[in-house]
């Protein structure tokens, strides 16, 4: 139970629904609430499918290349520490853009694929494989539960954004931007999540290192 809770916290930190929310609001700006609800479900479902598939076959792919679970735990833990360090420094905020680039962003326009590449990108995928490797069972139930809970939370978060779309539209029309307190709160939450990811990465890496040497490599 404790390992499952740790897995849930790790996956929520890596997927980072708060940053996904900011990206979703930017992408869906001006869309009808009904369209936003459909897209919120689409993003969450796609993220769920990708991460569940990774959790089920990720460790098998490692075995094909002859990579031990302990070795990947060490490497995956190091990657998670790097991701967490970037989050702790506030670098994992892909939605931030300078005013001078706003015109180009409006012309090109981000798509849902960019959001999915974030919510189910290298960080979450590495986390899923590392957690599944730590599970050491045929079906990593704890990891799959963590993925499911995270994707449901992601869907609920994006759904809230779609319900507040009318208020956001009014703010844009009046020339307003995202409030400073909201941006500050998201930044603090991201940094805190980064600290959690670092701690989990260190724990996973040290456990893998211990198992690697205990098993003779």
Overview of the structural elements:
The chain has about 220 residues and is mainly alpha-helical. It is about 80% helix and about 0% strand. The protein is built from ten helices and no strands. It has helices at about 1-15, 15-25, 35-65, 70-90, 100-110, 110-120, 120-135, 140-165, 165-175, 180-215. α4 (about 70-90) runs antiparallel to α10 and α7 (about 120-135) packs antiparallel against α8. The two termini are about 30 Å apart. The model is unreliable at about 95-110 and about 170-175 (pLDDT under 50).
Give the end-to-end Cα distance, rounded to a whole number of Å. Answer: 29 Å
In the predicted model, the low-confidence regions spanning at least 5 consecutive residues are 93-109, 168-177
The tally of strands reads 0
The shape, in one word, is globular
> What level of helicity do the residues show?
over 70%
Largest sheet: none
Figure out the total of helices: 10
Structural class: mainly alpha
Taking all residues together, what is the mean pLDDT?
79
The portion of residues forming beta strands comes to under 5%
Q: What value does the Rg take, in angstroms?
A: 19 Å
Order of helices and strands: HHHHHHHHHH
Key attributes of the depicted protein:
single chain; globular
């Amino acid at each position: 139970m404790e390992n499952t809770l740790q897995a849930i916290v790790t996956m929520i930190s890596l997927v980072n629904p708060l940053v996904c929310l900011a990206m979703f609001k930017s992408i869906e700006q001006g869309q009808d609430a009904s369209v936003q609800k459909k897209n919120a479900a689409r993003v969450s479902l796609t993220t769920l499918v990708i991460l569940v598939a990774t959790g089920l076959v990720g460790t098998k792919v490692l075995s094909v290349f002859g990579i031990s679970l302990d070795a990947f735990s060490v490497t995956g833990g190091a990657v998670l520490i790097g991701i967490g360090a970037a989050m702790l420094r506030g670098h994992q905020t892909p939605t931030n853009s300078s005013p001078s680039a706003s015109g180009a962003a409006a012309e090109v326009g981000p798509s849902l694929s960019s959001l999915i590449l974030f919510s189910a990108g290298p960080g979450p995928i590495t986390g899923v494989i590392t957690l599944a490797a730590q599970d050491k069972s045929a079906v990593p139930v704890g990891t799959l539960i963590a993925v499911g809970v995270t994707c449901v939370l992601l869907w609920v978060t994006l759904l809230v954004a779609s319900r507040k779309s009318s208020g956001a539209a009014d703010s844009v029309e009046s020339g307003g931007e995202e409030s400073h307190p909201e941006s500050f709160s998201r930044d603090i939450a991201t940094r805190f999540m980064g600290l959690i990811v670092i701690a989990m990465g260190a724990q996973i890496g040290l456990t893998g290192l211990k198992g690697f040497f205990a098993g003779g490599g």
